[in-house]
Amino acid sequence: MKVLFLDFDGVLNDLLTITQAHGAGARRFSAGAIDRLNTIVARTGARVVVTSSWREKHTLDALRALLASEGFTGEILDCTPVLHARTAGARDLEPGQTRCREIQAWLDRQPEPPERFAVLDDIELELLTAVHVKTEVDAGLCDEHVEVAISLLGTD
Question: Where are the domains of the chain?
Answer without folding.
Answer: 2-153
